[in-house]
Amino acid sequence: AEGGNELDLSKELTITEHMYTLEELADKLHTNIDSGITDTEAQIRHERDGPNAFSPPKLTPAWVLYLKEMTTGFAIIIWLASIASFICYGIDLVPQYYYLGIVLALVVLITGTYSYSQQASSSKIFESFKNMVPQQTAVIRGGERKDVPADKLVIGDLVYVKAGDRVPADIRVIRCEAMKVDNSSLTGESDPLLRNPEVGHPNALETKNLAFFSTNCVDGSGYGIVISIGDHTVMGKIAKLVTGIAREKTPIAIEISRFTKIITCIAIGNGVVFFAICMGFGLTFFDALIFMIGIIVGNIPEGLLPALTVALTLTAKRMASKNCLVKYLEAVETLGSTSVICSDKTGTLTQNRMTVEHLYFGSQIYRVSHVKEEVDQDMADVQEAYEAYARCCRLCSRTEWIDNNPDVMKRAAAGDASETAILRFMESVSDGPVMDFRKKYPKVAERPFSSVTKYQFSVHRNSTPDPSLNNHFILVMKGAPERIIKLCSTIIIASGESVPMTDAFVDQFENAYRELGSMGERVLAFCDTELTQFPEDYKFDLDNDQSFELDNFRFLGLVALIDPPRASVPDAVAKCRTAGIKVIMVTGDHPITAQAIAKMVGIFTVSHRRSTRISMPTVDAVGRGTSASIVVPGDELAAMTEDELRDILRDYREIVFARTSPQQKLRIVENCQYLGQIVAVTGDGVNDSPALKKANIGVAMGIT
Fold first, then answer.
1. Which of 58, 92, 280, 392 is the least crowded, having the fewest Cβ atoms under 10 Å away?
2. Does domain 2-44+133-243 have CATH number 2.70.150.10?
3. Which CATH number fits domain 330-351+566-700: 3.40.50.1000, 3.30.870.10, 3.10.620.30, 3.40.50.1820?
4. Using an 8 Å Cβ cutoff, are 521 and 367 in contact?
5. Pairing between β-strand 679-683 and β-strand 340-343 as defined by DSSP bridges
6. Closest CA to 556 of 494, 474, 469
7. Which pLDDT does position 613 carry in this prediction?
8. 378 an active-site residue?
9. Where are the domains of the chain?
């Protein structure tokens, strides 16, 4: 029955609301996309569907947990030995039997109490889910906007979400302005994702018109219709998945159970044999019984339980000194038995912090650090072009600092991950603070990023205008390279001159774009122009009237960003390989990005044997071998049978699963265990929770 329950829980998410038109959605949910539902209707739905909260799981009473620690397999034998000693004392009145009975009972009590104290904190997973519910949320009911408790939301409510808010339920976005959400805790994708109301991808986790409960809105704002609440949200289903998974028995528990059975058989067998011999020699029944009990007790290694507890405790304390907290003592031994590690990427193998990796301008790619002296040295020969490029990087951004941490890489910023990465880079390598530089070029108008245009731009007052050119304003733009290049008629070269765009320059740009993209980096393009048709006192109103054409820009260059690997990861992966442990990356990120990170950290040690998508008809016959590597996208994984998945896990030594859902991560772990592997799962997001609990050992990263 338990296995059937887990199979049901492992089914993929079935959400269809993102495929409806707005009219169909309003009709299905009996709501209005402009005024929402009425307070009366909300009350009726609240009584029908219940609160927007998770159902609490059944908690095991503390006394039951304590009793379990006192009645493990080996502890039962010692309890029986203690009882037998007291029986002997009652028959023969020898004090040694009395003392032995007390000592054996104390051994079980002390070791059991200590093990229980290690687990007294119990599982806090569900408590962490409860903390995700925002206290108040903005909702439109009957055409009026009001703040209501998040647990009072009902299906069909029209909610408003802005930058800095946590999404209060699963919502279908119906209108928005540059709205970006951070889905990293749910999908593992580190870069904020733009939302728009259009019907798009059939996969609910891939579509852009849904925002999920507990994810954060990091930029822009939007309105959405609530389509799921409480246990029926994606996060609620993950919570149910986690609480419905039974904890795996550890290898040491299995071995102790087996050892207990063997010792019991030997001890009782020897006792019975000696009882028969004593009776044959004519001893009384009680004397023979005392001999039998003594033989049974003597065959039981009473010191094993405390010795095992002490050994595991000492190891746990050593691990704690290295900031690794052990929840269950038996997990220490399990960690040493691990044969497969299924690791998340974002925040585990990588830093979960977008970082500028490469720059491209003047027809050359530069790999850059965040050290000013090194960048100044690299840019010495292209200083004029770099200054124009850097000006655009610093101005074309909505991100600002929100604290004054002297360590720029740890300084908090308000804005999306890509803009924050560019801001950190420019702050690190510029002569002065970026905010001071922006004051020299005050922003007078801007157009946020749009999924339709795939660019954003802002207009700034020129601090050094040339009266003869009437260039009182400059426009800076960044966006998707393929869009930006089409708006440009000139390009800046290494000397800082602007020259007409030629086919040769376009070919160089496309080669650079392709090369940076193949490394799994996110690439943005920059361009600028001077607005010479406006007087100095002109007031821009981009919302109502854009009084200029977006063309004839000067192409400045590209910036490539990536969530870089943690410095210690490549060495750790190499040590795992040396120890015979197979490391599998399981991530929700894009296959190309996942493949690039896998190469950086050493999970892939050979050139990839095929494309990032599996050719299903040939997967059984082609490229298999001890050195084969493969990237399996989530949509391919969803179409695989269990046997096909097990074939891949068995035959490929280097594996990356990309674009995976929490259910798919759980499925991968289950199939590794089916193949007889001891599986460790490392992760730091809610999307890792089911796999973390199902694994033989779960390693939650970054928990403090």
1. 58
2. yes
3. 3.40.50.1000
4. no
5. parallel
6. 494
7. 36
8. no
9. 2-44+133-243, 62-121+251-320, 330-351+566-700, 355-562
Residue 684: which of 344, 177, 342 has the closest Cα? Answer: 344
Spell out the SS3 assignment of 467-506: CCCCCCEEEEEEECHHHHHHHEEEEECCCCCEEECCHHHH
pLDDT score recorded for residue 118 = 62
DSSP-based three-state secondary structure for 630: strand
**Residue 97 DSSP SS3:** helix
3-class secondary-structure state, position 613: coil
* Residue scoring higher pLDDT (302 or 403): 403
In this predicted model, what pLDDT tens digit does every residue of 308-364 receive, in sequence order? 777 877 887 787 777 777 767 777 878 888 999 999 887 788 887 889 999 998 889
Task: Please check the confidence at residue 411 and state whether its pLDDT lies above 50.
Answer: yes
Architecture of domain 355-562: 3-Layer(aba) Sandwich (3.40)
195 Cβ contact list (under 8 Å, min separation 6)? 173, 176, 179, 180, 181, 208, 209, 211, 220, 222
Coil/strand/helix, residue 166 = strand
Of 671 and 470, which is predicted with more confidence? 671
Token representation of residue 400 = 């600002």
Judge if pTM exceeds 0.90. Answer: no
Longest dimension (CA), the chain: 127
Q: Which of 151, 157, 219, 344 is catalytic?
A: 344
C-alpha–C-alpha distance, residues 85 and 290, integer Å: 9
Q: What 3 state SS string does 331-395 have?
A: HHHHHHHCCEEEECHHHHHECCCCEEEEEEECCEEEECCCCHHHHHHHCHHHHHHHHHHHHHHHH
SS (H, E, C) 122-153: CCCHHHHHHCCCCCEEEEEECCEEEEEEHHHC
